[in-house]
Amino acid sequence: MPSNVKNDFFLNSVGDLISAASVNQEHTILIVDDEVNNLQLLKRTFRNKYKILTASNGLEGLEILKRNLNDVSLIVSDHKMPIMEGTKFLEEANLIAPDVIKILLTGFSDIEIITDAINKCNLFQYVLKPFNPDELLEAVRNGLDKFDLVSSKSLILKDLKELFYKTIKSIASALDAKDPYTHGHSMRVTLYSIILAKELGVPQDKLELIETSGLLHDIGKIAIPQAILCKPGKLDDNEFVVMKSHPSSSERLISSIEKLHDVSPGVKHHHERWDGRGYPDRLAGEDIPFTARIIAIADTYDAMTSTRSYRKALDHEVAIAEIEKCAGSQFDPALAQKFVEIQDIIKAAKENPEEYYMKYSTLYKEIN
Fold first, then answer.
1. At 125, which CATH number?
2. Catalytic residue set
3. What integer pLDDT is reported at residue 80 of this predicted model?
4. Of 151, 180, 210, which residue sits at a domain end?
């Protein structure tokens, strides 16, 4: 297929997605007004065009919004109401549903009230009373167009993130398949890494970086000959030099992908040592990227507790003792100590990696 045809197909597909979201979605509007006559007028204005929910005060409106959170697209609220004024209601509603469009009806053109509502409520528009039904309908249509656009963008971004995540996992699985003894290695290293990171209180955006780095940490091994990767005995000096090239190969493979720029340091340096005797750049201490220091511990633990062509798996307790012993020489001492502290979680994850991966994965949760 020619590239221009591919591009046209992609653009048309995205366009169809946006159109489908805006045309086929049956919108629900929540109307909040304490005066029965006003409520009836608003219902007549929107009837046969949208689904309608009504509330006679702000507290009731908030309860209805919570119960119909996945359905409500837009709120029309009066300002002057007992129990809770419209601006306060919309401010609370914004905390519950920030993407829902909010329109305020007010009999006052007080600039302070309007400015306050725009800033605190994420107000889309205010309409002065008595309102013209056609003008209010136009404001609602414009608001729903914005809602559709935001919803469509979110859907597209979610689909792209899902595609990215599945591609990364496929690459990791294909790599592990080169050696039957390393099946599931990348996922387990990633799992132990994100468990450690979460227990350390690492921020959410950093967790995604660590997860992606873990899945791709050995991608450079795709260039290592099978005979070296799967050799049943000890590697000779020349073979070990080839094996040690995989972190740099990993970095070269992903450096040209803009989305993965931040992943490169963790991937390239996960075989560095705290004492500076690692590879490829003999970095030491905190000069080693934080992500790489986390992956180094997870990678070593999984290597020790997995059966390889040249030896049987070590017990969990033996591996933990070795990590504790190497804190301050091979590993960041603070990270190694934390890993030892959470060893019960690590052991449980080792015994049931699929379940724990779904529980701890940031990327998985974002697309589900």
1. 3.40.50.2300
2. 221
3. 86
4. 151
